[in-house]
Every structure is written in structure tokens, then in C-alpha cells.
Specification:
This protein has 150 residues and is α+β, with helices and mostly antiparallel strands. The protein has one domain: Thiol Ester Dehydrase, Chain A, CATH 3.10.129. Helix content is 16%, strand content 41%. The protein has two helices and six strands. A six-stranded antiparallel β-sheet has the order 1-2-4-5-6-3, with helices on one face. The longest helix is centred in the middle third of the chain and has 17 residues.
Length: 150
């Protein structure tokens, strides 16, 4: 299936077609909308049974901020690599600038992941990213990724 044949919302099969991530490290549940190379909205259903909640934090489970940053990066990489011209690339973190965490993400939450590509070349990408729980801004940052071949 090419990017032009994708119907949104798109589920895990479509995400796995584009991204190399697999369980237990795939942090996007569905793609709500995407204009390849420009912007993407995705969602993450936070499974209450995730083993991570046993230790972060016992009695007050919270999804770690680093996982939110990874989910946002995966959303950005889907946006880039779902298009024909970047297919088969891998995105590796280069920077995370100005990260702010404003609202805790709890087990059972659905997180809306938004990415806007600010700059993209064959070797580097920069994106502005935001994560929401409902209308509450949970996290935001400027992220950049070095792109390599799979």
C-alpha cells in the first residue's frame, strides 16, 4: 500500500508498514490524519497493564516524559517516512529542545500526538511537537532527527 492509498484513521498495521518499531516499543496506536512531510496527528492509548507502571510510580502511576517524547518522535517519523520520497529511512534523535511537561499522563488515558515538520532534508528533520490529554497540554518540544537508511 502506498501513502496515497492510506485511509485515515489508520491503525497499527499501517504504522508498522512505515515505522520499524515493534512491541514493546511502539508508542503510537493510530494515525488520525497526516499530510506527509508536513503534519500529523496520532493517538496513543495508554494501556493500564504496562509493566512500566509497576515502578513509575507505585501507588501513583504516571507515563514517563521520555516515553511521551518518543511517541511524539514516532509520530513525526511516520509523517516523514510515510511519504514516497522518505520511505525506508530511519529517524534518530539529534536534539530535544525546550521540552516542557505540563500535565501527567495516567494509565487508561488517550494521548493526542501532534507533529508539525518545520524543516526536512534527506539527512535532517526538525519538528514542533505537542501531546494532549483531552484539551490539556501534557508535553511540548522542538525535536530534531538525523535520518539514515534502514
Amino acid at each position: 500500500m502506498s501513502a496515497t492509498n492510506v485511509t485515515f484513521p489508520a491503525g497499527l498495521d499501517e504504522i508498522k508498514r512505515v515505522l520499524p518499531h515493534r512491541e514493546p516499543f511502539i508508542w503510537v496506536s493510530r494515525i488520525i490524519s497526516c499530510e506527509y512531510g508536513k503534519s500529523c496527528v496520532a493517538e496513543l492509548d495508554v494501556d493500564p497493564e504496562l509493566d512500566i507502571f509497576r515502578g513509575h510510580f507505585p501507588g501513583h502511576p504516571v507515563l514517563p516524559g521520555v516515553i511521551l517524547m518518543e511517541a511524539l518522535a514516532q509520530t513525526s517519523c511516520y509523517c516523514l517516512m510515510g511519504g514516497e520520497d522518505m520511505a525506508g529511512k530511519l529517524g534518530f534523535f539529534a536534539t530535544i529542545d525546550g521540552a516542557k511537561f505540563r500535565h501527567q499522563v495516567a494509565p487508561g488515558d488517550t494521548v493526542r500526538l501532534e507533529s508539525t515538520i518545520v524543516k526536512a532534508t534527506k539527512r535532517l528533520c526538525k519538528a514542533e511537537v505537542k501531546a494532549y490529554v483531552g484539551e490539556d497540554l501534557a508535553a511540548e518540544a522542538s525535536q530534531s532527527y538525523v535520518l539514515g537508511d534502514r
